[in-house]
C-alpha cells in the first residue's frame, strides 16, 4: 500500500490508502510515466518534445498528479459509499431484529398481564370462599 498525502497536513481526511495496481511501481514512478506519456501525446500533436519548456513539463506532471489524486479520491469515495451501504444494511437488520424483539416482548407482557388477571380472579374467588 502507498500513503498519499495532500495539502501538507497529515490528518485522516487528507490521507488515502491505495493498493499499488502495477507490480511494484511507486506512485511517483506512475506519475512520471503518466507525465512522460502526456508529453509524448503532446509531441504527436505537432511540436517536438524539445520545444516544450521545463515549465510545461512541470505543469504536465502536476496535472498528472492532480488526475491521479482525483482517481484516488474517487476510489476512496466509492469504498466509503460501499462501506456506508453495508453499515446501513447492518443497521436496518439490527432495527428489524429489535422490532421483532419488541413485538415478542409485547406478546409476553400481554400473556403475563392475562395470567396476572387470572390469578387475581382466582385469588378473589378463594377469598370469597373463605
Q: Find the count of extended strands (DSSP E, 2+ residues).
A: 2
The residue ranges in which pLDDT falls below 50 over 5 or more consecutive positions are 1-24
> What does the average pLDDT come to?
74
* Order of helix and strand elements from N to C terminus: EEHH
Major beta sheet, specifics? 2 strands, antiparallel
Query: Helix- and strand-based class?
Result: mainly alpha
What's the helical proportion of residues? over 70%
Task: List the strand order in the largest sheet.
Answer: 1-2
Rg from Cα: 34 Å
Coiled coil: 95-129
Keywords: Coiled coil
Report on this structure.
Helix 1 packs across helix 2 (54-129). It is built from 2 helices and 2 strands. It has helices at 27-45, 54-129, and strands at 2-5, 15-18. It has one domain (2-129). Mean pLDDT is 74; it is low at 1-24. Strands 1-2 form a two-stranded antiparallel sheet. By secondary structure, it is mainly alpha-helical.
Summarize the structure.
The protein is mainly alpha-helical and 130 residues long.
Topology:
Elements: E1 2-5, E2 15-18, H1 27-45, H2 54-129
Antiparallel strand pairs: 1-2
Task: Using brief descriptors, characterize the structure shown.
130 residues; two-stranded antiparallel ribbon; 2 strands; 73% helix; 6% strand
